[in-house]
Amino acid sequence: MLERLLANAAETPPSRPLSVELVDPYPPGGGRVWREEQSPLMWMNATAENVTMFPDETVTCDGPIRSGPSLSEWAAAEGACAEVTRTTFATRQVQSRYLRWVFDKVVAERPQNVSVRVHATRATRIEGGARTRQRVWLEDRDAPLLADVVVLALGHLDAVPCKDQRLLADFADRHALGHLPCAYSADADLSVFRPGEDVLMRGMGAAFIDLMVLLTEGRGGAFAEGADGRLRYVPSGREPRLHVGSRRGVPYRSKISYRLVGDPPPLPRFFSAPEVDARLAGRDRIGFWDDLWPLMAKEIAYGYYHELFTAHPERVAMPWREFSAAYDGLDWDGEPLRALVEASVPSKADRLDFAALDRPLRGLRFPGSADLQDHVREHIRADVDRRSDRRHSADLGAFLALLSVYGQLPLLTCLARLPARSRVTDVDGWWQGFFEYVGSGSPRERTRQLLALAEAGVVRFVGADMWVETDEERGVYRAGGASTPDTVEATGLIEARLPDADLPTCTEPLLRSLYRSGEAAEHVLADDDGYAHRTGLLHVSPEDFRVLSRDGVPHPRRFALGPFTNIRRFATFARPRSNALSFRQNDRLAREVLRLLGAPARVSRKDGGRGGTGLPAETGPALPAEGRLALQDVAVVRPMVA
Question: How many CB atoms sit inside 10 A of residue 195's CB?
């Protein structure tokens, strides 16, 4: 947001000096999640070439494009990180230094009449109506900051534990057990988990991998490459024994470590927002599984088969042009398309199977835990091999199409006609989970480390549909799953997930005060049949990012953006040359803020009495000669809202 604000201000300088006040208790640039003061074992989850803080020529926005280096380009040009290459998964410490460099660069290149000041503290409340300047109170100051406009960019939020988590915490206190609720890995206190202790872990995504590393290599263990090319774990003796499970019962798919062999698939093809909206125009209601998923699946499969046919023609029975012509005209869920794939792709192993990809343990029941361990270890080994072998480059074609679908989905206007229940269970539930499982897995080396830990007996698998219960009499946790009748008892429990958003109980005093006063509202999805779902997210206007009150009234001087709001789908680093949504949204907001601040301060008759700032006319004196913007970023700085 700051980069877009200063770039736009340089193109059309404000008519009066502009003061930007940045409020954040964590260092600017890295913020909380990406601060440099954390374990060097914490890695990025994207390669250095796929991380940038600068827009490029592909970004469609009204503001000026001030290009800059990606993480890998910065590392090479600055000479600061010789070990970082284009395909490196850099440490978060390296990323922190990149983010600080970006911050210093954009501030140094600001226009002469714009100042930027950092306040290393936390904002606790905002006061001020639609017609007055905003007073931003800071926890270590007696006097507030005065601002014409306030932008909230708080990233992911911490929340007070829910009822179920409080019951587990109380149980742990009564029996002196270890318990870690949902938390950010770098901030988690893992000292309560003892060497050799049996500890349950719920969740097998990115948070699980972080915590796994901290509890093993972070306690002195080491990984060694064997002569056979397999990774082995050498324990330190200070590790707990981790029993892990989730709904799927397997870890996220490993990151793909090769490039396309054929040409990039032309995307989007079947799932572009304008075409989908036109196709579904005039419908009062649409369905996810009937209307959207068939087009999404066809798009993902198109990316897969495009790479399979063009890069590996020896494994298909017809030319790509012939297959593509037939594929284009067939419905995804029809028998003709299935027949086409079976006729043109002889090997079943070369056909894309969404059901098998999504839930590899579904329908499998093992007689005991030992058989489950063997099966899951083999599953992980096969996944690592597949995603390291260019013979399976069709998987990368599917991944690129998956990214395309993910980027187009938030742009659909027809989503407003999707029932709220479906938006919760299908879009925010199944689809989001499927996307993260397929596309947000760990680097190959991390997955190899997980396999080595499993082979060493430090990590054991509980299975799919993991459940946890408490045994008051024995004073232990007990867990099991749908994959085996065996259960396990443990004296520690880790919720290996990030906290869920919950505006009413978030730990940020500023947001809680706005919520309690009715000046901010939680986003609620509801259907005509009485179904209602609390999202836990701050409700902002999707058109202009203004904070909405409990009565649905937008505040003309308060904006918010990021994953703590209902406009949250770009909460990830931007990929270069991808027309990243974050740049487009930040540019829109930056230009709106400058529009409000840039005109002469006094009221004129021509603007309908709104005042020269574009804000409602002041009842008192005109605004001061210096415009002030407060950027409040107090909790977790996510990359594109730093």
Answer: 12
